[in-house]
Amino acid sequence: MTIWRILAVDDEPLNLEILQEYLDDPKYAVQTAEDGAAAWRRLEAATEAPHIVLLDRMMPNMDGMALLRKIKGDARFKDIPVIMQTAASSSDQIREGLEAGAWYYLTKPYGPETLLAIVNAAIYQLDKHAKAMAAVTNIHQALRLATKMEFRFADVEAVNVLAAALSEYCGNPPLMAMGLTELMINAIEHGNLGITYAEKKKLRLSGAWDDEVLRRRKLPDYKDRHAMLNVERGGDGYVIRISDEGAGFDWRRYLEFDPERAFDPNGRGIAMAHKTCFADLEYLGRGNVVVVRVALPK
Questions:
Q1: CB-facing half-sphere around the CA of 182: CA atoms within 13 A
Q2: Is the pTM of this model over 0.85?
Q3: Are 156 and 217 in contact (CB under 8 A)?
């Protein structure tokens, strides 16, 4: 069993006690820090970095935003999912946190079910990415010889392998892998399987998302649907095109971080891909085709 290392940062001892109580499970190893400066010292001294950081925003010495920026600016820690948890819940504050690199944003007070749903969603992504990277260790060298490639995919396992392989091919893992994963899963769940935003939110909170994806893939209306991914290498980078067989969606709503969706376990993937993962991202037509451009690594 994987033990997931979590660093909880909060200047209120009672809040740290509550977090430890919520995360009282053998699969979690929780360490605490009383402010951002103490958390940074713990990060730098750790032989193994935490898998997840639970970060309060308002603290003395070094506040949560300052620590978040240090984490995202350091190559050793920049890929750690940071879950902001705070009473600072204005639209501008939420947008600032998300654009600085927070994966999720929880507003105090919240219950254990909400926290666990968000933590487990982050773990899900980390676990899938790690397994996919292990599966493609010996593939990416061959992929680098290709100038054009086309892939067909229909399930999450294929998404994880493809995202890991292509991020190595393009020389920008794991940030690019995260962006590709979000876009390809969107093509499967929202595109080919017709899972709505509200349905995904409910499924994520209940832990039933995987089962529902598998169930819908067996239905007559969906079982023969596939999504396509095309890659073409040019002089200054790569163009990746992802398409699905769905009816499309109003993609304009999801290109920017929306504070109203900050408390949901879903709804930030496209904005994260748009803002942080690619040189350019463009949806075409009715929204069932997305094209991203990746610059060649320097």
A1: 25
A2: no
A3: no
